[in-house]
Amino acid sequence: MLDSKSYGQIKAFRDAELPRARSTIHDLNSLHDQIMKKTILAAADFFVSKAGPPPSPFCFFVMGSAGRREQGAWSDQDHGIIYEHGGANEYFLGLGEEISEGLFQAGYKRCEGKVMANNPLWCKSQEDWQAQIRQWGQASSWATIRHLLTFIDSRPLYGEGRLLEDLKGDTCEWIHREKLLPRLLQNTLHIKKGIGIMGQLLTETHGPYSGMLNMKDSGLFPYVNAARLLAIRHYIMDTSTMGRLEKLPNSVISPGERSIFAKHFSGLLSLRLAYGVHRDYESGHYLQVESLSKQEKRQLKEALRTGLTLHETARKLVEKEDLHGHE
Where is the DUF294 domain (predicted)? Predict the structure, then answer.
């Protein structure tokens, strides 16, 4: 492993730049990309000096909120590796381990679900990746479909991006051929409600975040899940929720609806930045509702309702397609 001082310097850069970058979600995610790329370069240079040059072209990619460019101030690790030629798994798992350790020391919590490039599940040759994705879809369990949805949010960060892009294009075509979209929908139907039937905000009732709103589950995920489903339906490869909404045809959502959905999703991201707890990765998902003005509470409630509307739109379109075929 590279000495901790080198990764510590990257973390010091992160800590110094973070207050400035938190002004907008674009600046913040640009900073995250910059930090992660610095870490990957340092890790790769060290690993090559120890293990030799890569035996195959490869791509290191990110998923989750990093893949969608929707990270908060704190972020955990969600990443993988795809390499072109087989027989190189040991090398790339070692590289994945060095990058994972480097990101951890630079301030990125390890993924509790082990969605990281040091896990054989997320580090494979192009051929093995293709086979695994088909196995996930054919198994159609909650866990394997969740893996598939996670992969769909991936984007290249380092290396040969074409390897990932080709695999994602093939995956989208395969989902359509196998008519898997309704199964993907089933995996995203549960929504943690953030607003009650009387229009009240439904905050946590106990625990360390009592009185706070879970912005990830109640606010952002209805938009994220709906936009992902609709993007797959229309062969859109963009990974960000905003980008997916922008590229949807007007026959699916009108320009006026698109503007409303985008405005409210962007507003939720901004509220999370402004009023999130931000002590660590977990606390960054929670909004301090009592800190909001009356106007901000009204905006929050409208954004929560609008997210449910978008999610319902996606559900109806996918279920209609399941009954009548793609229209």
Answer: 179-315
Q: pLDDT (tens digit, 9 = 90+) per residue, 260-288?
A: 999 999 999 999 999 988 888 888 899 99
Query: Residue 50 corresponds to which amino acid?
Result: K
Instruction: Tokens for 197, please give them.
Output: 């039937």
Residue 327 pLDDT > 50: no
Confidence of residue 23 (pLDDT cuts 50, 70, 90): confident
C-alpha to C-alpha distance for 159 and 265, rounded to whole angstroms = 31
- Residue pair 194/201 in contact by the 8 Å Cβ criterion: yes
What is the model's pTM?
A: 0.95
Give, for 175, the enclosing helix (H) or strand (E): helix 161-177
φ, ψ of residue 202 to 5 degrees: the values are -100, 95
Q: Mean pLDDT over all residues of the chain?
A: 94
Distances (CA, A) of 224 to 63, 65, 150, 242, 307: 13, 10, 11, 9, 9
Phi, psi values for residue 117, rounded to 5°? -70, -5
List, in sequence order, every residue forming a beta bridge with 286; answer none if it has no partner: 214
Q: Which CA distances in Å does 320 have to 249, 255, 314?
A: 17, 22, 10
Helix (H) or strand (E) holding 231: helix 221-233
All residues at 6 or more sequence positions from 50 whose CB lies less than 8 Å from its CB, including other chains: none
157 phi and psi angles, rounded to 5 deg:
-125, -25
> Which one-letter DSSP state was computed for residue 195?
B
CA distances from 314 to 140, 193, 231, 245, 282 (A): 20, 17, 10, 12, 28
